[in-house]
Amino acid sequence: MKERSEKMNNKVDIETGLRLINRKDENFEEWYSEVVASAELIEHYDISGLYILRPSAVEIWETLQAFFNPEIKKMNVESCYFPMFVLECHLKKEKAHYDGFKPEVAWVTKSGQSDLETHLAVRLSSEAIIYPYYSKWIRGHRDLPLKLNQWCNAVRWVVGDPIPLIRSREFLWQEGHSAFASEEEADAEALEILELYRRIYEEYLAVPVIKGTKSVGDTCGGAIFTNAVEAFIPNIGRGIQGAATHCLGQKFAEKFEINFEDKKVEKTMVWQNSWGFSTRTIGVMVMVHGDDKGLVLPPKVASTQVIVIPVPYKNVDCEGINDACKAAVKMLREEKIRAELDSRDNYSLERKYSEWEMKGVPLMVEIGLKGLGNKQVCVVRRDNGAKIDIANADLVEEIKKLLNNVQQNMLDVAKQKRDECIQVIHTWDEFVEALNQRKMILGPWCDEKVVELDVKQWTENEMGAAKILCSPFDQPELPEGTKCFASGKPAKKWSYWGRSY
């Protein structure tokens, strides 16, 4: 009974102080699940694999939308919305596409107690929903290019253990679908969109990514090839696809009869792309930056960039402290800095500090009696814990500088940690050693699908199999005579390998 009482007391202490039970370096999966819930990004729903996105997560998502929408508008992409159900016959038209999604399809087969005559699949991706109408709308070369984007949800009934935001059974995303008169136009757009995805990760989420091409075995079903931005989680040594553009060629155009008359009045098929990023972006950000105190938010996506906390003293009139805090918030907000005041008097300072650390607010401003007398504030950075005294007169300009510095520092630190995990190898023994050390492995490859499948089979264990993460656009020099590390055949390119989500 005594032992149980002590455990209960410890639990209360942890809950009161908002401390995490799990440690990032010791128990990553449990740490991650604990952080996203404790920091109020998500709430678990009553159905496994489904999650409620709380306001703080939705605000991050809206920030990314606010960046992305104007950028694709410059590319003449128009907004649309299509229904979330797809006819079974349409879903199965492109066999490779259907086979890739088949295990994850959620079907609607009944209306009340009556069986539906035609089974409906819930949207996994909208190629089979949208392209029958591209066939209707595209007739001549003047109808091209046709470029549409929708913000919506998708449902993929994933096999295995779901992971909030990373691999959930419903997620939010944008999906773009484009049709062009030429292959060159389609390829150019795919690269332009991929650069926007890089900017989302690096400029907003402060997560370094590598742009590259997925292997044939990891190309989206129905695509000719898939380009992606690949992130890496150093703590567990796993890559994760951040976003992708799929070059569909004319495969779907053939199946859905998307034809047009060109300038020579000859009938031909369009060239197509599909592209998307999802709320997985938020999960990747948490995995890369979070620590044992909770979230660490990049200022660009933080709904609250600065939290101002009054530091009261016993037997002292705190009216002056509170007035100074209100004035600081007012000044910051007037300069479009997202600042909030924590004036709650029913929470201890320790509780407040723990809560805002857990939520990852980039800067914490403390104003107490000493600061009031010296006409200054104390600013605490969430990213590195540094404390800086700032004169009241310089508050706005210095906070702006600090927010910019935090944003850049988070990217720099994440890139340094990522780069420290990259291991260049040339032989199978070097590959195995690097894989056991949870590295992101750059090795020469013969570019044969069967060899990748062999590597997957040879490395399969309780941690999962190794795979190609991507073949980077920025290829290192490949000296003549270089051999594939796995097959010994002549190498054709460098590829990143590792375990992956």
TrEMBL record:
<dbReference type="GO" id="GO:0004827">
    <property type="term" value="F:proline-tRNA ligase activity"/>
</dbReference>
<dbReference type="GO" id="GO:0005737">
    <property type="term" value="C:cytoplasm"/>
</dbReference>
<keyword id="KW-0436">Ligase</keyword>
<dbReference type="GO" id="GO:0006433">
    <property type="term" value="P:prolyl-tRNA aminoacylation"/>
</dbReference>
<dbReference type="InterPro" id="IPR002314">
    <property type="entry name" value="aa-tRNA-synt_IIb"/>
</dbReference>
<dbReference type="InterPro" id="IPR036621">
    <property type="entry name" value="Anticodon-bd_dom_sf"/>
</dbReference>
<dbReference type="GO" id="GO:0017101">
    <property type="term" value="C:aminoacyl-tRNA synthetase multienzyme complex"/>
</dbReference>
<dbReference type="GO" id="GO:0005524">
    <property type="term" value="F:ATP binding"/>
</dbReference>
<keyword id="KW-0547">Nucleotide-binding</keyword>
<dbReference type="InterPro" id="IPR004499">
    <property type="entry name" value="Pro-tRNA-ligase_IIa_arc-type"/>
</dbReference>
<keyword id="KW-0648">Protein biosynthesis</keyword>
<protein>
    <recommendedName>
        <fullName>Proline--tRNA ligase</fullName>
        <ecNumber>6.1.1.15</ecNumber>
    </recommendedName>
</protein>
<dbReference type="InterPro" id="IPR045864">
    <property type="entry name" value="aa-tRNA-synth_II/BPL/LPL"/>
</dbReference>
<keyword id="KW-0030">Aminoacyl-tRNA synthetase</keyword>
<dbReference type="InterPro" id="IPR016061">
    <property type="entry name" value="Pro-tRNA_ligase_II_C"/>
</dbReference>
<dbReference type="Pfam" id="PF09180">
    <property type="entry name" value="ProRS-C_1"/>
</dbReference>
<keyword id="KW-0067">ATP-binding</keyword>
<dbReference type="InterPro" id="IPR017449">
    <property type="entry name" value="Pro-tRNA_synth_II"/>
</dbReference>
<dbReference type="InterPro" id="IPR006195">
    <property type="entry name" value="aa-tRNA-synth_II"/>
</dbReference>
<feature type="domain" description="Aminoacyl-transfer RNA synthetases class-II family profile">
    <location>
        <begin position="49"/>
        <end position="298"/>
    </location>
</feature>
<dbReference type="Pfam" id="PF00587">
    <property type="entry name" value="tRNA-synt_2b"/>
</dbReference>
<dbReference type="Pfam" id="PF03129">
    <property type="entry name" value="HGTP_anticodon"/>
</dbReference>
<dbReference type="InterPro" id="IPR004154">
    <property type="entry name" value="Anticodon-bd"/>
</dbReference>
